[in-house]
Structure formats: structure tokens, C-alpha cells
Amino acid sequence: MKLYYWSPFISNIATEKAVVNSIKSVKKFSKEKINPYLLDIIGEWDKQKKNLTNDNIKIIHLLNFKLLKYLPKYGFLRSRFSYIVVFFFSIFKLHKILKKDKPEYLIIHLMTFIPLLLLLFFNYETKFILRISGYPKLNYLRSFFWKIVGKKVYLITTPTVTTMDLLNKFKIFDFNKIKYLPDPILNIDEIKRKKLDDDITNKKFFSNKTVISIGRLTKQKNFEFLIEAFNKIIDKYPNFTLLILGEGEKRKMLEKQIKKLNLENKVFLIGHEKNIYKYLKRAEMFILSSLWEDPGFVLVEAGYSNTIVLSSDCPNGPKEILNNNQNGFLYEKNSLTSFVDKFKEIQNMSEKQIFKKKLLFKKKIKEFTLFNHYKILNSILSRK
Hints:
The protein has helices spanning about 15-30, 50-55, 75-100, 115-120, 140-150, 160-170, 190-195, 225-235, 250-260, 275-280, 295-305, 315-320, 335-350, 350-365, 370-380; strands at about 1-5, 35-40, 60, 105-110, 125-130, 155-160, 180, 210-215, 240-245, 265-270, 285-290, 310, 330. By secondary structure, the chain is of the alpha/beta class. The longest helix has 26 residues, at about 75-100. The chain starts with a strand and ends with a helix.
């Protein structure tokens, strides 16, 4: 059985890890009954070429040149321009390869408009599986388009039960076509190797108690709020330091905010880090300040690292993963008062109470292993 993965991206995002881990899970557990292939559309997988080759992941290149290096990556208008360029360079190539190779399945993660538009106008032997990657913004245009093309889509998979319920509520797709498929976030063997890595350039960051936040420096991650909120608590808790791991278009703005609040010795923008576990294992707490997440990869990774989690109650992932405060702590999104109160609550809790939350979280995140992902994906592909 041939299984193709479509997931073009122009900057580092969590979905690329989900795609690679999904392929790894299929290769490891299907015993070669399923042959997964990764479609490289614009050279987006070039940086991972060595690792992908080492894992024997088969790559199909749609273009014979690396378009990605010529595309702008940050900013709303610039990224939209890049999407348009990708559309024109890839749509005919994808059509040709689907007609020629006739894979049994095509799982589409990102820039889904391109393959879905093809499906709307052409008939293929390939079954299209739409993967909802991230919290879906159901504006009129997207909802209308999904309702039309949804009749030809084989299945839709969602990263959370909450998103599955949301799609059912708005009746965008046939109820029987929507399936919950947790992301394969936790590659246990890889995590064990990464945890052994103790190479942190500046260990002075951990001389005091350190809280960690991770994500691209974008509007979604809401780091402006986090920095402002952290400024509210350091008078009472001066021994804390905040590290933000990630890169993005808001770096300069965040640097100005840090300087304006005189937090240069308290808040540090570390940049993009391939190995976040060496930071998480040293952290006192992990904070997620996002405006939306689905499911929230770093929440799961923090839970596996035994790091206590404080998260905004944004839609859709955190509330589900943290089970409404049972597995961690939720504060009201964009509320400084709620953030400060929850932070204080954590500091006043006993080690036994904290341990209980960590234990409950460990049980929850078993859903996000490679094996569990494969088990559910295989049942979906075997659907009669």
C-alpha cells in the first residue's frame, strides 16, 4: 500500500515533526505492509535530508530546484505571497504524480487548498485524507470550500476530540468521515537521546529558578502578554528567569518590550532550538501563553519531561490535554490577574500536590506516542 504525505511549509513549525513521526510510526509498526512516501514540494525537507535518509524515509521531489530559499518566510503578506508562488509551482506537478503513481492514500497536512482544489475538479484513484493541523479558523470562505470538497474527501482526522466536536457542530463534513487521530509527538527513543545532551551554551540562565516558553515569535504565541505578565510577578518572585525558545517576525518588537520594561537580565530570547528537552528538564515550570493551539506539542513535551505546566485556556488543545486543570494549571487567556493568581497558586502548592498533577499528565500523554498514532491510523486506513 502506498501512502503519500503532503505538508509544504516555509518556516519551522510543529507539524513537520508530526509528519516525520507519523512516517516513522508507519515504517516501524506496519512491517512493510504500508509504504509511506514524503512529498518534498519546494525543498522544505532539505535541512532534514540527512536525518530522513538515516531513517530510510523515502522522499519524492516535485520540483528539481529548491524554491524555498527564494521565498519570504515571515510576515502575513509575505507568507501569503509565498503560498501563491507555491500554488502555481506545485499544483500541476501534484496532479501529474497522482495520475502517474496512483497511491492508495494522500494525507494532506498544510497548504491543503492545493490538493483539495485538484480533488474538486478531477477524479483520482487516490483517497484523500484531510488532516486538520492546528486550530481551524472556520471563516465563511473556508467553511464553504470544505463543505463542497468534503463530499469527495475520504476522511478527515483531527488532533483533538474538541476539534472533532467543533466540526460536527458546524456540520462542515459528514459525521462518519471525521476521526480523532492524536499527533505522534513522542518518539521515545529520540527523546531519550536528546535528554542525554547537556550542552547548553549559557548555563547562567539556570542559576536561578527558570521558567520556559517555546514557540515561534508570532501573534499566535502571544509572547507580548507573557513578558508583561512575567513583569508582574518578579517583584514577589525575583529569583525567577524567563527563557523564550523560538524565532520569528516579532523578535524586534519583543526585544523592545523587554528593554522598555528593564527586563534584560530577566527575560531572554534564546532563538530556535532543535533540542528543547535539555531546557525543559532543567526548568521549574513551562508556560504556554498562546491565543490558540491544537493540540499544543510543547505541552505534551513538557509533560513528558516532568515539567509542571501553566497554560492559557485557549482553544482547543490545552483544556483537553490538561483536563481542565487536573493535569496542570490553566489561566484565563489574556488575563494578567488570572495569570498572577495561578502562578502564586503553583508556588504555594506542596510537592505532593504537584507530583499528583505530573502523574496524571503522564497518563494522558500516552495518547501521543508513535505506537498509539500508528494503531489509530492503521484502523483508519483499514476502514471498509
